Amino acid sequence: MPQERHISGIPTVAPGMPPHAGQPLLWAGAPPKEARLFGILIHGRGADALDIIGLGEEFDVADVAWTAPEAAGRTWYPFSFLSPLATNEPGLSSALSVIEGLVHEADRLGFPADKIVLGGFSQGACLAAEYAARHPRKYAAILCFSGGVIGPPGAPRDHKGTFNGTPVFLGCSDRDPHIPAERVQETADVFKSKGAIVDMRLYPGMPHTIVRDELDAVRTLLGQ
């Protein structure tokens, strides 16, 4: 059964918020006052908040308050996540600001970073991975479905901090048309180098989608 959903506005952080300022934010799952965890789910290119909030429901973990922001024009940034960072501005910085605003909102509601689940699919997974890589700290979990850290090969990954045992799930096809397997491995290495516990799964010949094995893995992870 779908959980009750409601819509509010994305909390803003200044400066650098446009072009994604004023977009809707979808809520589902447990009410924040009753939740154990606060989940932030980021949708992919061409999708919307309604698409990705359903992923939280698929995990079937009842005590998580799920939030899903929506990108202006259904895309967070215009070009491939492997492009030079400057070519994806101002969308990229604005998208990362959206996540930062939700992290602040979670803290305001009583959820410190170690009670926050950060995840997404495709372009949203790339944003989740990139935000976490830029802000290493102990999270409840990081969930990246068909995505990886953003930037061209050789982009610096020297942000200070530690994940301090944060569980990270990385799932992707071994021949995804958008996400090279090498970038998924690089993403795993980035997280491992800063103390995360990484479960990376490359699925032979899988389309650009999410499969049952990934849902089951995350259900187990979030239920721990």
Strand-pairing-aware structural class: alpha/beta
Mean pLDDT metric: 93
Oligomer designation: single chain
- Order of adjacent strands in the largest pleated sheet: 1-2-4-3-5-6-7-8
Low-confidence stretches: none
CATH superfamily: Alpha/Beta hydrolase fold, catalytic domain
How many H/I helices? 5
The percentage helix is 25-40%
CATH uppermost class = Alpha Beta
Q: Radius of gyration over alpha carbons?
A: 16 Å
List the helices and strands and how they pair.
Elements: E1 6-9, E2 24-29, E3 37-42, H1 49-59, E4 64-69, H2 91-108, E5 116-121, H3 123-134, E6 141-145, E7 167-173, H4 181-193, E8 197-203, H5 212-223
Parallel strand pairs: 3-4, 3-5, 5-6, 6-7, 7-8
Antiparallel strand pairs: 1-2, 2-4
Helix pairs in contact: 2-3
Tell me what you see in this structure.
Helices cover 29% and strands 21% of the residues. It is built from 5 helices and 8 strands; from the N terminus they run E-E-E-H-E-H-E-H-E-E-H-E-H. Strands 1-2-4-3-5-6-7-8 form an 8-stranded mixed beta sheet, sandwiched between helices. Strand 7 (167-173), helix 4 and strand 8 (197-203) form a beta-alpha-beta unit. The longest helix is centred in the middle third of the chain and has 18 residues, at 91-108. The model has no long low-confidence stretch (mean pLDDT 93).
